């Protein structure tokens, strides 16, 4: 984002001002929103600004941010994934039950779970590209099937609606360190998911802005037919994006498993919308072709700040969903306005 | 444009009329006025002690708009007023979210913490963090087995298996042969224990049916379908008071003869018991759970008193039938039973 005030003759080399460039960024609206929400809670919640409180907020943001990143990429690519929420639960269930039933090293279960979530991603992608049906319908189907399978298989295999404890099994300690450990800086505890989250955002941003695959993603979401015509492998890109969601669900699911030891089979329903909300607050367009990974992270942060800020501010949690909805509307309106401004000034 | 204006005007006129009707058409019975009168008659809002103003946070696994937890909250609030305690309440039905809410309460450095352990493993680390921070913890409602292990002072609630057995025995007494147990929260271990307990002591056959408790029409349709497909079912046990009413509706439209019984109590259940639409209810006295938890934290802060001697303090099961209905109806109406 370095810009100089120099003017050159060639119009392709005309430097846009720093402000213009900033206005053109998809995450701008959300950053303004995040600063506003932060300032708001600093004023109204006296325990919000403590280091331990901020660590809790970051943790809350990271657990959904990990999923918001691939969901944002998918939305830039022009598709939805409604199965993302329950896929997280599936990932944890598969890992836990495989290890337990096979009495295998926990890492084997973790590996099997990765394969399974990627396979579900491939299934979504292939179904979508083969049938040409809207992703809304395809993934709604996967969402319902996974919800049923989560409960059905868990009951069938474990006999109850939650999985058995695996904390005494070989490999658990190592996997716990990787997915659910706590890092202490000073006297503040940070969860390792925050690192996973930042890592994913960095990788996704690099893919989007610095690689050919990134261009493909933008092209697919912008205009599929035009993209195909100029040689973008649309089918492979979309399948890859769904596999990305699978990967995110794998990380989030393993965190769920290794921090809580047992997994409830009925959870995760409804979270897919929260991931989409985070991506949209972060500047992704519902229609695709526009957005950023950093934006999704800011969206997740807004969500984390709001959900925990209400507790620190000692408000009635009954109003939480209202605030969320209002924030979503405001963020989208702000994005829309900023984008119009940016386009008009080009 | 002109048409839009007319539309706006028409809507305005309707609104004004509606307001007029609502002002003119006062009801002389029931409604908000009656409720306010009842509230004024209830226990006063003055603190009875002169201890410092401690802060107690309660974090439960309740979903949004749950009647049961509303009553728990009322009990807790009443005790908080009496004990000069600042009471904070938060809830989330997803384990991870609930754990994060506990973290938030610990960050706030509250003077006491009340937690429900419906999904104990998920809450372990968060509760341990509270204990490590020196915050006294009391568990309520679910988690009697884990409470002590996690370092809580006491557990206040009902042993779900014991309550389940009470239901099975009551069903035997009423000569039932084939019953249905309706689980409205998938993944809640306490609910599984209730149905298992009932199955254990019940001499007849009992089946479980999972429904989506956040979607009432779906609950009704599921029960209705089950009753239609099997007319030998002669009892339906719901695990929460609001579902009893739905089960009655399902039974009526399915034309079944099954008796509807329920765990927990509310105004509609009390009315149902009185009119004979419901057979019996097993109450765990939610008001008591909230009230006692706050009061015990006050006692611990004030006098280091601990109740229960390391064992759960039971608030149920209390089997209530038609003959108790009259008195309970009054209490249920004011929202404390």
UniProtKB/TrEMBL annotation, chain A:
InterPro entries: ABC_transp_permease. It is a multi-pass membrane protein. The keyword Cell membrane applies. The chain crosses the membrane at residues 28-45, 57-75, 82-100, 106-126, 133-153, 190-209, 230-253, 273-290, 297-313, 319-338. It is found in: Cell membrane. Keywords: Cell inner membrane, Cell membrane, Membrane, Sugar transport, Transmembrane, Transmembrane helix, Transport. Its main location: membrane. The keyword Transcription does not apply. Pfam families: BPD_transp_2. Part of the binding-protein-dependent transport system for D-xylose. Probably responsible for the translocation of the substrate across the membrane. This is Xylose transport system permease protein XylH.
């Amino acid at each position: 984002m370095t810009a100089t005030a120099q003017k050159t003759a060639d119009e392709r080399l005309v430097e846009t001002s720093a402000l213009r460039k900033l206005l053109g960024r998809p995450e701008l609206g959300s950053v303004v929103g995040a600063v506003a929400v932060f300032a708001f809670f600093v004023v109204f919640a006296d325990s919000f600004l403590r280091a331990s409180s901020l660590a809790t907020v970051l943790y809350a943001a990271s657990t959904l941010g990990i999923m918001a990143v691939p969901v944002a990429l998918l939305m830039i690519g022009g598709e939805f994934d409604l199965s993302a929420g329950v896929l997280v639960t599936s990932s944890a269930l598969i890992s836990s039950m495989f290890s337990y039933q096979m009495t295998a090293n926990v890492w084997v279960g973790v590996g099997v779970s990765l394969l399974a979530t990627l396979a579900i991603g491939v299934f979504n992608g292939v179904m979508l590209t083969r049938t040409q049906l809207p992703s809304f319908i395809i993934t709604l189907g996967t969402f319902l099937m996974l919800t049923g399978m989560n409960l059905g298989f868990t009951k069938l295999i474990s006999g109850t609606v939650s999985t058995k404890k695996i904390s005494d099994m070989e490999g658990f300690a190592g996997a716990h360190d990787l997915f659910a450990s706590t890092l202490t800086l000073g006297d503040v505890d940070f969860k390792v998911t925050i690192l996973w989250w930042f890592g994913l955002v960095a990788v996704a941003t690099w893919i989007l802005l610095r690689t050919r695959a990134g261009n493909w993603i933008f092209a697919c979401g912008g205009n599929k037919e035009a993209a195909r015509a100029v040689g973008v492998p649309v089918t492979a890109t979309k399948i890859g994006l769904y596999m990305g969601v699978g990967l995110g669900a794998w990380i989030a699911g393993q965190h769920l498993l290794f921090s809580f030891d047992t997994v409830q089979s009925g959870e995760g329903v409804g979270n897919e919308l929260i991931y989409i909300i985070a991506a949209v607050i972060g500047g992704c367009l519902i229609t695709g072709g526009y957005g950023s990974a950093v934006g999704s992270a800011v969206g997740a942060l807004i969500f984390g700040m709001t959900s925990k800020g209400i507790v620190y501010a000692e408000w009635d949690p009954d109003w939480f969903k209202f605030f969320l909805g209002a924030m979503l509307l405001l963020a989208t309106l702000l994005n829309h306005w900023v984008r119009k401004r940016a386009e008009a000034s080009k | 444009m002109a048409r839009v204006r007319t539309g706006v005007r028409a809507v305005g006129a309707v609104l004004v009329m509606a307001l007029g009707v609502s002002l003119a058409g006062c009801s002389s019975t029931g409604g908000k006025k009656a409720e306010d009168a009842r509230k004024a008659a209830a226990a006063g809002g003055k603190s009875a002690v002169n201890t410092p103003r401690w802060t107690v946070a309660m974090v439960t696994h309740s979903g949004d708009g749950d009647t049961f937890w509303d009553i728990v909250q009322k009990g807790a609030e009443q005790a908080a007023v009496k004990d000069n305690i600042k009471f904070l309440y938060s809830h989330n039905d997803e384990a991870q979210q609930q754990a994060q809410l506990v973290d938030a309460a610990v960050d706030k450095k509250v003077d006491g913490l009340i937690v429900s352990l419906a999904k104990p493993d998920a809450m372990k680390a968060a509760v341990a963090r509270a204990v490590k921070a020196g915050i006294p913890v009391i568990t309520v409602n679910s988690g009697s087995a884990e409470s002590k292990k996690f370092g809580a002072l006491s557990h206040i609630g009902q042993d779900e298996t014991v309550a389940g057995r009470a239901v099975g025995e009551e069903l035997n007494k009423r000569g039932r042969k084939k019953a249905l147990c309706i689980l409205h929260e998938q993944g809640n271990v306490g609910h599984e224990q209730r149905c298992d307990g009932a199955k254990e002591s019940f001499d007849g056959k009992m089946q479980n049916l999972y429904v989506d408790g956040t979607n009432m029409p779906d609950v009704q349709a599921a029960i209705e379908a089950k009753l239609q497909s099997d007319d030998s079912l002669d009892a339906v046990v719901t695990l929460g008071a609001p579902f009893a009413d739905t089960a009655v509706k399902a039974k009526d439209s399915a034309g079944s003869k099954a008796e509807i019984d329920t765990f927990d109590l509310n105004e509609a259940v009390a009315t149902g018991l009185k009119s004979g639409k419901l057979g019996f209810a097993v109450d765990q006295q939610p008001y008591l759970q909230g009230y006692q938890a706050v009061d015990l934290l006050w006692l611990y802060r004030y006098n280091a008193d601990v109740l229960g001697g390391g064992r759960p303090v039971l608030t149920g099961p209390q089997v209530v039938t038609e003959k108790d209905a009259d008195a309970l109806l009054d209490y249920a109406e004011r929202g404390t039973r």
